[in-house]
């Protein structure tokens, strides 16, 4: 059955329509709402798409471009085509045809498509994967993320359990806090020492985002006498609690404070979520596995999911 899908480029007057659709989507997160996407709008050329069947919005896709190449989205970890439960496989194929026609008109020759990891799917949402296959897209990158399946958790390793006991003996107290400046300063010290880099977000940026999304961006730390030993910034969605940043101080490592923080989050605070995500442990576009990093995550009971990137020639 043929159908006509039209594509319109997102602009600011569409903000409420975009956000309302994302909030009702079966595979989106708060990170794909415009108030999150647009915090760094000055760094990217936005060409996000809205797909209509007649006058009904049926899908959106966060997207940016640079010269003749588009990406969904260069400023986000992931962001493919977002849909609701009315999306069918045939409609998705039609969306791809309309998307390719749109990009051809814009003289865009290539799309880097960042698939949304399956843990964020509230309902089966792989219509886009089939459309990528039909359109002969090439898998160009596969990252490995480590995720705890919370309804049936794997027991922490012996070393992690010992660390939890050590942190308790050191009187580490785990609590939620909101001093983002303190956290990012600590995180940047570690990143600069280990990797000569800094956190993606500044303290002011993450603070503004947390104020815009107070139910989704939260921070937890392990303290001794109100001094931060270790902590994490959590990106919380209906199904997933994801560790966007993790930090620890030299003293925090000595007393194993991070182990107690993770024990609290995985075994107490987020027991009603489906997944606890530690993020990726791959480098160089997925071709190198950081064995030491992933081993630490697996000691908490995490196991692998993949995050795929495709190249679609237009």
Characterise this structure.
- There is one protein chain.
- The radius of gyration is 21 Å and the shape is elongated.
- The protein has helices at 15-24, 34-37, 89-105, 127-134, 158-169, 180-195, 203-212, 250-254, 257-269, 291-298; strands at 5-9, 45-46, 49-53, 56-61, 64-66, 69-71, 82-83, 110-114, 138-149, 173-176, 217-224, 227-236, 240-248, 275-280, 282-283, 288-289, 303-313.
- The strands form three sheets. Strands 2-5-6-8-17-9-14-13-12-11-10 form an eleven-stranded mixed β-sheet, sandwiched between helices.
- With 314 residues, it is α+β, with helices and mostly antiparallel strands.
- It contains ten helices and 17 strands.
- The chain has two domains: 5-136, Gcn5-related N-acetyltransferase (GNAT) (Aminopeptidase); 147-305, Gcn5-related N-acetyltransferase (GNAT) (Aminopeptidase, 3-Layer(aba) Sandwich).
- Keywords: Transferase.
- GO terms for molecular function: transferase activity.
- This is GNAT family N-acetyltransferase.
What is the mean predicted local confidence, pLDDT? Answer: 96
Q: Using the 3D structure, state the CATH architecture of the largest domain.
A: 3-Layer(aba) Sandwich
**What pattern of helices and strands is seen along the backbone?**
EHHEEEEEEHEHEHEHHEEEHHEEEHE
Query: How many DSSP-defined strands?
Result: 17
Strand order of the largest sheet: 2-5-6-8-17-9-14-13-12-11-10
N-to-C span: 24 Å
Q: Could you name the ranges where pLDDT drops below 50 across 5 or more consecutive residues? A: none
Q: Might you state the CATH topology name of the largest domain? A: Aminopeptidase
Portion in strands? 25-35%
Number of domains: 2
Biggest sheet layout: 11 strands, mixed
Helicity, as a percent range: 25-40%
Organism: Entomomonas moraniae
InterPro entries: Acyl_CoA_acyltransferase
Protein name: GNAT family N-acetyltransferase
GO molecular function: transferase activity
